[in-house]
Write a structure and sequence with these properties.
Pfam families: Peripla_BP_4 (PF13407). This protein is an alpha/beta fold. The chain contains 12 helices and 12 strands. Helix 4 packs parallel to helix 5.
Amino acid sequence: MSGRKRMSMKLIMLVVLVASLVIAGCTNNEAPEESATPSVVAEGSSTAYQWGDQNFEQFVGTAAEGRTLKIGFTPPAASEFYDIIEHGANTMMNELSDRFGVKFEFEMSAPNEHQSVESQVATIENWTAKQYDAILVSSAGDFDAMNAVYQKAMDAGTAIFMFNMPAEMWEEDELKAVSVIGYNNHYQAGYIVGKYAAEKLQGKGNILLIWGLPGHWSTSRKNGFLEAIAPYPDMKIVGEQRGDYVRDKGMQAAENLLQAHPDVDLIYGENEEMAQGATQAVEARGLKLWDGTDGIITIGADGLKSGYESIRQGKLTATVNVGPVDMGREFIKAVFMHEVLGYTVDKIINVPTAVIDKENVDVAAAYTDWALSTKRND
């Protein structure tokens, strides 16, 4: 047989062999073997772990053996928003505890209102004296004054992690914390509200702003909104009033503005509570809420269960889900990685955000419901 014929025969045999293997693979009805690494599910969290295998789990468990992390959680006020963040933290604490054996002592303390910074400072100093491993803090206090408090705590051995703070407003080396876990208030909140408004109003309309307390949050979100609508000269802010981040004051502010400016197309409440108050004010005046083509658009920002229910009912038009569940999960993971495993973590960790309306509310609501249903393990 010639060399060319022998090569052709080998090629034919190879093609036949590959074809038979493909056919066998397509027609194999045998049950697949069980994975050598069973998935582990955290009770109360209903989450299948995807983070490493059994070998990884063993070594991390050894590193975490006998560890109890004492963590303080101090938001600027008690609210539905910060409750969702805390429940997000519960889901991650349960997962880490169930899988790696680390235990948590978690304490929450919030001032009665955003301006009560003194009580928040006293709380941080108390937890530092008790040698807490980490303090999670979001504060409306003066940036430089709070930085001094944080530095003192870290010098005493307590790690500071900020959350829900507009880190984009400062240089990274000015942030006296291990990490800031949140979102970019300028581009991930105010800006995307402006883009959404421009799309729905086709670049033309009168706008009312219901704004929170003067400070870093309100400044960053407003700058983002103004940047987004700047290309649309026919989108005009005709009125603005403070609502101090609560629903009843948001409603009162909207009532005052609507009386002075009844011909309005959109009301932007800086947070969701004020936006829901504005929605109530529109209804109380007998004005039409946005139905997809006509009426007054009301939009806020947070990602609340109550807001999602209002969207489903056709009242609140939209809100920005700023990731409260993910904030809670990510700051607990950051504390674990830093305090237990000794890793560095990024100075700024931003979670995903999205504008939520009737088109996509179900996904966001389901994620929030999951977190709110999770109780922290004893």
